Amino acid sequence: MSADGDKEFGSCCTELKETMSGVDFEPLITVGDGGILYMSVGLIEMDDEEPGMIDHPLFFCPFCGTRLQTVEEVRAKSGGDDEDAT
Ligand SMILES: [Zn+2]
Predict the structure, then answer these.
(1) How many CB atoms lie within 10 A of CB 21?
(2) Angle at CA 31, nearest 5°, toward 4 and 13?
(3) How far is ligand 1, taken at its centre, from the CA of residue 48, in Å?
(4) Which residue did the predictor score with more confidence, 59 or 25?
(5) Strand bridging mode 29-31 / 52-57
């Protein structure tokens, strides 16, 4: 229950909801810091470490095409490091 205005990702269709809940597998679509929805788009090899995941904000549902979040929302939630001049 989020009463602070957060949209609930996965409410657009059952495919996304089930993918995100991922009981039988590790979901590649996850909600990260600040409530941003990310999709893993690839693996990166790191020396002496486990492969890392490359995440990218997901703007539209890959299953039904519903807009999930906007560039502005992602930028605001991630701290707006583009234009934050402090
Ligand atoms: Zn959907």
Answers:
(1) 10
(2) 85
(3) 38
(4) 59
(5) unpaired
Ion ligand 1: residues, CB < 5 A: 12-13, 16, 61, 63-64, 66
For residue range 26-81, what is the model confidence (pLDDT) as tens digits?
899 999 988 999 999 999 988 888 888 899 999 999 999 999 999 999 999 988 65
CA geometry: angle 62, 24, 74, nearest 5 deg? 35
- Residue of 3, 14, 6 whose CA lies nearest to 66: 14
* CA of residue 85 to ligand 1 center, whole Å: 36
